Amino acid sequence: MKLSISRETLYRALRHMSSVVEKRSSIAILGNVRLKAENNRLETTATDNDLCVQGSAEAFVDTPGVTTVQALKLFEIVSKIPEGVMVAMELDNGGSRLSLQAGKAKFSLATLGAEAFPDMSKVDGGVTFTMPAPVLKKLLDKTSFATSTDETRAYLTGVYLHSLLVNDQQTLRCVATDGHRLAQADMPCPAGAEEIPGVILPRKCVTELRRLCEETAEVKLTIGEKKVQAEAADLTLTSKVIDATYPDYERVIPKNNPSNLTVARKSLLQAVERVSILSHEKTRSVRFNAIENALALSANNPDQENASEEVKADYAGETIEVGFNAKYLADIGGQITGDDVQFSFKDNTAPVLVKDPADPSAMFVIMPMRV
After folding, report:
1. Cβ-based burial of 93 (10 A; exposed 0-12, middle 13-18, buried ≥19)
2. Residues near 61 by beta carbon (within 8 Å), at least 6 away in sequence
3. Which helix (H) or strand (E) holds 191?
4. Neighbours of 209 (CB within 10 A)
5. pLDDT tens string 223-276
6. Which pLDDT belongs to residue 119?
């Protein structure tokens, strides 16, 4: 294998690889990136056996070939090479070393044969459709923060992507919950996506999908029962899905919370941030007291310290006192794009519905705390 490629092109081809490879795997080749040169293209592939990212870039290929090298080392080297420099790569020592030259800088990297490199880029069957990348990113942004970190309940550690009818309109929906809060985001179903199977996208897949969406205008998705694939320009991402059944999330969404409180988002989040300074270190609980035309916030801790603040609100129902985790409030508030946020209460123990009056496509549920 012998080729030359511009530093910027190689950097773009490797940009997703370093975050995909296994950093502490007992299988050495999973820490490597596969480099395949042919037909004046350099194909780069990285995988952890659950997620695979494949890039393709223009290169001047003198001798076709394939090998694998340590992904993190290669990416770090390329990232330190000045822009505008051509990078020459060549296999030598019978293929056991990859020599790399950029200007007067020279590197020699150990290689592993590509024969044992796993290939998981193929998706059998599935439903294929195209959608705007910013819309997909919005769906993932609005929901992924609510996934669980508890690996004993793997089905809650991902984002549930599925299609359903909402008010007689076919809808593409993302949902995530950790049992304490829930996030849901909808969009009109793209053409061809009506029959997709419901799949749970793993957290790492969601992270890479979001990064992919930041770099392109449109994404081609293939959704199968075992794998999903996203294609955009010169990058293809393939991921296994979480093999589990997602819980019936709709039964925890409040259907009859009659008491509505609307408050300025910025004022609320700033008040929560200040008051929570003196909340309990473990629970981070903040007490809401909804009163006529105002929301009183308060917190205390075992040292008998306390804080309180009142913000103006649109509320005319009965007085309700309820506690929330301050971090959960901040997370949900960070996904509200409008100036106001609306809370819908039933009582001080029932789940609370949170909506963005400026964006009816998303909604959130947060469980109250005992304070």
Report:
1. exposed
2. 2, 3, 37, 38, 39, 40, 41, 42
3. none
4. 25
5. 999 999 999 988 999 999 999 999 999 999 999 999 999 999 999 999 999 999
6. 87
Rounded to the nearest 10°, the torsion over CA 52, 56, 61, 66 is: 10
For residue 152, give the amino acid letter.
T
Q: What is the DSSP string of 80-139?
A: HSPTT-EEEEEEEGGGTEEEEEETTEEEEEEEE-GGG--------S-EEEEEEHHHHHHH
The string of DSSP letters for 225-241 reads: SSEEEEEETTEEEEEEP
Q: CA dist 348 to 228, 271, 279, Å? A: 41, 21, 19
C-alpha to C-alpha distances, 114 to 69, 78, 129, 184, 238, nearest whole angstrom: 9, 21, 32, 42, 19
Phi and psi, residue 233, nearest 5°:
50, -115
Report the candidate in 191, 144, 135 with the shortest Cα–Cα distance to residue 163: 191
Write down the pLDDT at residue 15.
Answer: 84
The DSSP bridge pattern shows strands 105-112 and 65-70 to be: antiparallel
Phi–psi pair at 105, nearest 5 degrees: -90, 135
Identity of the amino acid at 297 = L
Predicted pLDDT at 19: 86
Spatial separation of the C-alpha atoms in residues 264 and 310, rounded to whole Å? 12
Q: Which residues pair with 222 in a beta bridge?
A: 128, 229
Structure tokens at 322: 């309820």
Q: What is the pLDDT of residue 358?
A: 94
Helix axes 203-213, 133-144, angle to 10 degrees: 140
The rounded distance, in Å, linking the Cα atoms of 143 and 364 is 9
CA distance 254 to 170: 22
State how far the Cα of 245 lies from the Cα of 227, in Å rounded to an integer. 15
- Percent of all residues in the chain with a pLDDT value above 90, rounded to a whole number: 88
Q: In the chain, which residues have pLDDT < 50?
A: none
pLDDT of residue 199: 97
